Amino acid sequence: MTKLPQMELSLEWYLRYLAEAIQLRLDAHFEGSAAPISFPALALPSEQEQAHPLAEFIRVNQLQTAEVLALLVALAPHIQATFFDAIIRERITEAGDFPEFGGVRGKQFRGFLPTGETVLFLLAGNDLSLRFHYQQLFEAAHLFVRHHIVWLDAPAAGEPRMSGKLRIDPDYIDLFTTGRVRLPQRSVQFPAEYISTELAWSDLILPASTRQQIKELEIWIDHHATLLYDWEMEKRMKPGYRALFYGPPGTGKTLTASLLGKYTGRAVFRIDLSMVVSKYIGETEKNLASLFDKAQNKNWILFFDEADAIFGKRTSVRDAHDKYANQEVSYLLQRIESYPGLTILASNFKSNLDDAFTRRFQAMIHFPMPEAAERLRLWQQAFPKQVSLAPAIDLPTIARKYELSGSNIMNIVQYCCLQALDRETTEISLHHLMAGIKNEFYKEGKAIK
């Protein structure tokens, strides 16, 4: 027989533990016993306890037996589709004729999906005082709801609250079943894309003052948890950090965000504002709520590029459109202030943003156009090692004469390299270098000197 991987063996153990707990409750229910049930405490073998992320989660968060069982009830359908149906069929002849056990059927998934009633029946049976006690598992203050781990869907209008479907965050399903969390794909529900870079800090050419401010962001990422919790500052300080990157296009704002993520082990997501902003009232807030709910407690860096589109100055209210536009800005301010991670807004001009935002930034970092010395370093680093420059090319003179951003220079280098490849040579000519410079000036509506 093929040996099952350790992860699968551990999950089977958890399902057996849950099945035994449910059988205890069903035995008591059908025997008419009203005595409280003492469920056995969870005790994994040490080698499995050390290996499985679910055991680690239980241990780190010090979950009690009732919390463990609630978590397993939410997780079980995602591990074994027929888990609950198999247990129910052993006790009743017609599936679904067991209202005490709660549960619903999905639209595409035809198995049993637990509800809040399922958890309350398991933990409390028909004991009203216990049922009300265990409803706290689904209150906002509980770890499950506060960290968006397990929660109840809102039931249909007029139906009991505990009839809401029990939900578990897909990231925790990934973690508990595969040991890793998959990064979300860009969608209407998550209007952001993961960004990364193969470059290093040495490839980022910035003034020393700007580099120092960026270093302060790294320091916050590394030490904010200690400051808030070990030094007990969470009651006096907002949980997250908000930074503004401002300056002309192509000066390194996006690259800096990517490098911060790379060197601090944080995923960076660039928000797609075209998917966030909607002309329909309330839709922008809905899109943002979906984004922030997904990002909550993930330690992600959220990067709002060209933030002026949504974080711009609020206007005086002349009509309903202005009123709702201002509400969108206020909602954004509220969600960003409550986000516990690093939020970066990027704008070409600091003055474009609403004053309510700028007052709440812990850091406002200017990304200026590079000076001549910085442009020379950018030119020197930009060309691939496979090419050589024609003797007529004087990079110090070009760097001094033409004010270009880092992205401008990379566009020119790409143009020159493609021209060289087309001519089947590895030498970059002065003619094509100047043509590339002219193209960049022309795109920006500037006259070349």
Overview of the molecule:
There is one protein chain. This protein has helices at 6-30, 46-51, 53-60, 65-79, 83-89, 116-124, 128-134, 143-146, 170-178, 208-230, 253-264, 273-276, 283-295, 308-311, 320-338, 355-358, 372-382, 395-401, 406-422, 430-443, and strands spanning 104-105, 112-113, 150-152, 166-168, 192-195, 241-246, 268-271, 301-304, 342-347, 363-366, 388-389, 427-428. It contains 20 helices and 12 strands. The protein is elongated. The relative contact order is 0.07. The strands form 4 sheets. The protein has a 6-stranded mixed beta sheet. Strands 1-2 form a two-stranded antiparallel ribbon. The chain has a two-stranded antiparallel sheet with strand order 3-4.
List keywords for this structure.
alpha/beta, six-stranded mixed β-sheet, 449 residues, 12 strands, two-stranded antiparallel ribbon, 49% helix, 20 helices
Summarize the structure.
The protein contains 20 helices and twelve strands. It is an alpha/beta fold.
Cα distance, first to last residue? Answer: 78 Å
Lateral strand order in the biggest sheet: 5-7-8-9-6-10
Mean pLDDT: 86
Helical stretch tally: 20
Q: Could you describe the largest sheet, including whether it forms a barrel?
A: 6 strands, mixed
Helix-residue proportion: 40-55%
Rg calc: 29 Å
Secondary structure category: alpha/beta
Number of strands: 12
| Relative strand content | 5-15%
Write the layout of secondary structure elements.
Blueprint: H1 6-30, H2 46-51, H3 53-60, H4 65-79, H5 83-89, E1 104-105, E2 112-113, H6 116-124, H7 128-134, H8 143-146, E3 150-152, E4 166-168, H9 170-178, E5 192-195, H10 208-230, E6 241-246, H11 253-264, E7 268-271, H12 273-276, H13 283-295, E8 301-304, H14 308-311, H15 320-338, E9 342-347, H16 355-358, E10 363-366, H17 372-382, E11 388-389, H18 395-401, H19 406-422, E12 427-428, H20 430-443
Parallel strand pairs: 6-9, 6-10, 7-8, 8-9, 11-12
Antiparallel strand pairs: 1-2, 3-4, 5-7
